[in-house]
């Protein structure tokens, strides 16, 4: 009996320390404030909320600058610019991560997602704002330099089948930037955060309201200046990435005809179908970003068919029916995570 008592006497101080330490951690977490950072990056706005006793905006922007240096075609000194200019250059880990993910999604979607579509994007007036309406001969000539199978990564160098091939990671870079910031915050020991760049989001833990993060899905209203804040729905999001692609904000009119910003890599022309926006939820915002673009290329019917064999993705689609009325489709597992009530 005395031996048993001695054992508990020996362990008791450690149990007390464990209880006190746990209580201290819980109390510290409950009193640690949430910090909000915002600014401009990648030609859009970022908004980041995280629970921390230290403002990390300077370090966060340093991480985003690394992404810009790796992937921005508008940065004259970036790695992707050097590749597009056929300069001798080696890629870094960030470029490699994005390239490999892009190739995987391209393969799974049969080329509906394709980072070599840049020449066609530029021709149609997006990216570098040429504002031209090309003829079919010009489109056909550029299609020769489009195709994800025409590029590969050998060691630390991108090898092209033709030097005129250009890369454009705009349809995946924002999602990757979101993931980079999220991983940075995790390394700092931050358990609760929300990172948003141009509508692409990743969350972890809980919001300042001590509940799951609630993220809005915009209504597909023609709003090229992105002024409207009207929401189609709100979804709870925890420990996930979410990305949205849509044609209702990025378009232009030429000779009375509307041209969407999503270019079909197969045809060389802007897509013409009923899908207005595609929101994708995945464990990675990088992957979600790529698939959101893929679905905008596929269109509503083809996307639904694709999802039958890719149930690891959750989606929220907004589309026009045969009468021109707006309809929604969402994955069954999202039913209890959606609310039409706008958060105050």
Question: Please, could you describe this protein's structure?
Answer:
It contains 9 helices and 15 strands. The chain has 344 residues and is α+β, with helices and mostly antiparallel strands. It has an 8-stranded antiparallel sheet with strand order 1-2-5-6-9-12-13-14. A 3-stranded antiparallel sheet has the order 7-8-15, with no helix packed on it. Helix 8 packs across helix 9 (300-307). The chain is globular.
Describe the structure in brief.
35% of the residues lie in helices and 24% in strands.
Total strand segments: 15
Q: Summarize the biggest pleated sheet.
A: 8 strands, antiparallel
Indicate the percent of residues in helices.
Answer: 25-40%
Question: What is the H-and-E element order?
Answer: HEEHHHHHEEHEEEEEEEEHHEEE
Name the average pLDDT: 87
Coarse morphology: globular
Low-confidence stretches: 223-227
Strand order of the largest sheet: 1-2-5-6-9-12-13-14
Q: Work out the strand percent.
A: 15-25%
Report the total helices. 9
User: What gap, in angstroms, lies between the N and C termini?
Assistant: 62 Å
Estimated radius of gyration: 23 Å
Please identify the structural class as seen in this structure.
alpha+beta
Descriptive key words:
single chain; 344 residues; alpha+beta; three-stranded antiparallel sheet; 15 strands; 35% helix
Question: Topology, pairings included?
Answer:
Elements: H1 2-31, E1 34-41, E2 44-51, H2 57-71, H3 79-84, H4 93-108, H5 118-123, H6 136-143, E3 151-154, E4 157-160, H7 170-187, E5 193-197, E6 200-204, E7 213-218, E8 231-237, E9 241-246, E10 251-254, E11 257-260, E12 275-282, H8 285-298, H9 300-307, E13 314-320, E14 326-330, E15 338-339
């Amino acid at each position: 009996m005395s031996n048993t008592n001695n054992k508990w006497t020996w362990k008791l101080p450690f149990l007390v320390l464990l209880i006190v330490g746990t209580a201290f951690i819980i109390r510290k977490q409950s009193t640690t404030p949430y910090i909000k950072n915002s600014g401009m990056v990648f030609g859009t706005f970022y908004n980041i909320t995280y629970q921390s006793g230290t403002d990390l905006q300077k370090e966060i922007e340093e991480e985003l600058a690394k992404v810009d240096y790796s992937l921005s075609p508008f940065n004259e000194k970036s790695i992707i610019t050097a590749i597009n200019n056929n300069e001798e250059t080696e890629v870094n880990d960030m470029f490699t991560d994005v390239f490999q993910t892009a190739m995987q999604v391209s393969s799974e979607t049969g080329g509906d997602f394709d980072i070599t579509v840049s020449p066609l994007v530029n021709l149609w007036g997006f990216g570098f704002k040429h504002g031209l309406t090309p003829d079919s001969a010009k489109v056909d000539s550029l299609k020769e330099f489009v195709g994800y199978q025409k590029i590969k990564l050998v060691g630390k160098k991108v090898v092209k089948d033709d030097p005129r091939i250009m890369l454009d990671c705009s349809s995946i870079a924002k999602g990757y930037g979101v993931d980079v910031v999220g991983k940075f915050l995790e390394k700092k020991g931050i358990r609760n955060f929300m990172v948003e760049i141009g509508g692409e989001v990743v969350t972890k833990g809980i919001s300042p309201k001590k509940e799951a993060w609630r993220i809005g899905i915009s209504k597909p209203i023609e709003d090229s200046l992105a002024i409207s804040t009207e929401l189609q729905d709100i979804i709870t999001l925890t420990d996930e990435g979410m990305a949205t692609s849509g044609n209702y904000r990025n378009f232009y009119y030429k000779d009375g005809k509307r041209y969407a910003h999503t270019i079909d890599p197969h045809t060389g022309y802007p897509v013409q179908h009923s899908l207005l926006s595609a929101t994708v939820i995945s464990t990675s915002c990088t992957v979600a970003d790529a698939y959101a673009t893929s679905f905008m290329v596929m269109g509503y019917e083809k996307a639904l068919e694709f999802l039958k064999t890719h149930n690891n993705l959750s989606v929220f689609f907004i589309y026009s029916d045969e009468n021109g009325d707006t309809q929604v489709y969402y994955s069954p597992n999202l039913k209890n995570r959606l609310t039409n009530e706008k958060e105050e």
